[in-house]
Amino acid sequence: MVKTVICPLCRSNLKKEKKYFVCEGCAEKYEARQGRLILWKEKFEDEGLSAIKKDLAFTKAYAEALSSTPEEKIFSENEEFFERERGRSLAAKMVDEKALNTFINLSGSLRGFRVLDVGIGGGKEAQWLFEKGVLEIVGVDISEELLSRAQERLKGKNISFIVANAERLPFPDKSFDLVFFMGALHHFYDPQKALKEACRVGKRVGLVGEPSSMGPLKIFLDLIGWGTEYGGLKTKRFSPQKIEQFFKERNFNVLTKTNFIWFPFSLFSRFKNNLAFLTTYFNFLKILDKIMGMLGHNLTVYAFSK
Ligand SMILES: [Zn+2]
């Protein structure tokens, strides 16, 4: 594992010294604990630290509170309702399958790939990547709580876990076949910086489940003040045009697709005890998905270096 990582501060190599990994350039010391290599420290951050801390506190509470994912908690609490409405398959289809299938349609085979999963979280999508034949995954997250969930879920797989900031990736240039983000980028303090890093360390970059700034319902939610905050932090979204321009400037070809994928758990969880509302809402979603499909709300992007 250690030969594939570099110092996130100065990008020099790390060498093992007793229980530490020491940077050959700036002498910063890093450690590994509980199967995770810790390549992030609070002192590395400047103006972003308070936002990162807020995000970490939220992530910790989130990891503790939920059985594994928010949807699973909501589903388990309303099992009878979902059985009746067959809502579970609808929701899964809308949120996960639809976005991931869109991605695989754009990217083609991932067989044999070495993948960096940025913001791996609980590891659900890493599991999907393995099902698609990827050879190896390096999972990065700033939250140790979430990484420990991913470690549990992905036991025995060809995967390593690193605590690192997406805006300062501890890897050499072009060391991954694919840098993969699922629903992560818009939560970062500086998503542009994270994307620049992705273009540096990856031959290809995949973005799945990125809410577009152009989605008509998102604009409406912004107006009424819902849908922009997550754990007390503002999310940051791109338009399809801006994403394409970004990759083209960095000499990447880019394929983009917009879907109407809209299953706002924040809204949903507000009404999770109101089954009459949920029934109406689910029926509304089914119709909405058909009518609004072409307007675009959710971005799937596949960029590959020229
Ligand atoms: Zn260093």
List the helices and strands and how they pair.
Layout (H helix, E strand, L loop, with lengths): L13 E4 L2 E4 L5 E5 L2 E3 L10 H17 L4 H8 L1 H7 L1 H21 L6 E5 L5 H8 L4 E6 L2 H10 L5 E5 L14 E5 L8 H11 L2 E8 L4 H9 L4 E2 L2 E2 L5 H10 L2 E8 L5 H6 L4 H18 L5 E8 L1
Helix pairs in contact: 1-6
The protein binds zinc ion.
Features:
306 residues; alpha/beta; Rossmann fold; 2 domains; eleven-stranded mixed β-sheet; two-stranded antiparallel sheet; 11 helices; 13 strands; 21% strand; globular; binds zinc ion
Explain how this protein is built:
The structure is a single chain. This protein has 306 residues and is an alpha/beta fold. It has two domains: 1-33, no CATH class; 47-305, Vaccinia Virus protein VP39 (Rossmann fold, 3-Layer(aba) Sandwich). 41% of the residues lie in helices and 21% in strands. Strands 1-2-3-4-7-6-5-8-9-13-12 form an eleven-stranded mixed β-sheet, with helices on both faces. A hairpin with a 5-residue loop joins β2 and β3. Bound molecules: zinc ion. Residues 7, 9-10, 12, 23, 25-26, 28 line the site of zinc ion (ZN).
Short description, anyone?
The chain is an alpha/beta fold and 306 residues long. The protein has helices spanning 49-65, 70-77, 79-85, 87-107, 124-131, 144-153, 191-201, 216-224, 240-249, 265-270, 275-292, and strands spanning 14-17, 20-23, 29-33, 36-38, 114-118, 136-141, 159-163, 178-182, 204-211, 229-230, 233-234, 252-259, 298-305.
